[in-house]
Amino acid sequence: MCLSVCYCRPCSPAGLATVEVKPSMNPISVGQNVTFRVFPEMSIPVGVWSHESSVFLLWYPNNPPNVIPDYSQRVTFNSSSGTLLLKFVTTADSGVYALQGFDPAFTRLHSLGYNFMAIVSLLFCSFLVPVSNVTVRANATGLVELNDTVSLTCSASGSSLNFHWFNGSNDITVNERVQLSDENRTLTISTVLRSDKGPLYCVVSNGVSNGTSPPIVLDIRYGPSNISLTVSPHVAAHRAGSDLTLSCSSESNPPALYHWFFNDTQVAQGSVFKSDTLTLASNGTYTCVAFNSVTGKNSSAVKELASLVLLPLLNG
Fold first, then answer.
1. Which among 240, 150, 241 has a CA at the least distance from the CA of 196?
2. Residue 232 contacts by C-beta under 8 Å, 6 or more apart in sequence?
3. Looking at the predicted structure, is the pLDDT value of residue 305 above 70?
4. pLDDT of 146-205, one tens digit each?
5. Which fold has domain 223-309?
């Protein structure tokens, strides 16, 4: 990081005054501009700027500033305010900066080594490369609930990166099933649940910028579970000769296959079974069996129908 530094100049032969030089931003990312300002603002008639003890800017009255070629397109200096603008910074620009100013009139009066007006050291400044190209990849996306484990890896370009994972709008936190490794770059979920499907994504930041990966949605295969069997019409007794519809549903991915049994004999397939023209022989046990061909699991629901009422015909 950049720290405030001391800028000293003789305010009189008897002593020194202390002011500050501050960067316009800290930290700063590669490609941005940074301005070094002197507080309080002052005129510096003669002086040099150096980086890591190498002079890159020299100026004196009645002449344009002399800038070395590597900085000629990137440096602007205002000697009347002491402000230095450094443009399009790179990682090579980090380090120690020093400003040395000279006061010709003061030098003539004090020739015994007191030939400086001011000197400033700017301590190390970290230049961060912005976050870009944030992506997530998974070692598998088709998974069986309570059986499989998945690992997701987040990658990004930039420097000093921090990784943070989300499932939808919720933070992902470590628990007995969920682990983070490789400085949070890798997310591992054991014995996956259907709630783990996502969308899963990572957010990468480094203090000057951030980026979000495209989401990954896992295809968690589960079920069938929570099977339900309904009868229509829903009445206490069913009239002989009427129709009866039974419907079966369950939570399953992929969707379950349904088989219907009447008194242990398979009579139909599909989620809906319709029995036309009820008779006394329609009384019995109706069973719906849901089956998931991927998980290999099944679940069943049973309905007993034993209250069919035969109403006598009325003669007119």
1. 150
2. 244, 245, 246, 247
3. yes
4. 999 999 999 999 988 999 999 999 999 999 999 999 999 999 999 999 999 999 999 999
5. Immunoglobulin-like (2.60.40)
Q: What is the pLDDT of residues 76-117, one digit of tens each?
A: 998 888 789 999 888 888 888 877 777 665 444 333 332 344
- Record the tokens describing residue 22, joined without a space: 């501050």
Q: Tell me where in the chain the CATH 2.60.40.10 domain(s) lie.
A: 5-128, 132-217, 223-309
What torsion, rounded to 10 degrees, do the Cα atoms 262, 266, 271, 275 define?
-50
d(CA 305, CA 237): 9
The pLDDT of 248-259, averaged and rounded, is 97
* Per-residue model confidence as pLDDT tens digits over 223-240: 999 999 999 988 877 788
Where does 5-128 sit in CATH, by number? Answer: 2.60.40.10
The C-alpha torsion from 273 through 278 and 283 to 286, rounded to 10°, is 0
Residue with tokens 């979000």: 212
Neighbouring CB atoms inside 10 A of 200's CB total: 23
**What span, in angstroms and rounded, lies between the C-alpha atoms of 33 and 283?**
85
Express each pLDDT in 258-301 by its tens digit.
999 999 999 999 999 998 888 888 889 999 999 999 999 999 99
| Structural tokens at position 62 | 């009645």
Class of domain 132-217 (CATH, top level): mainly beta
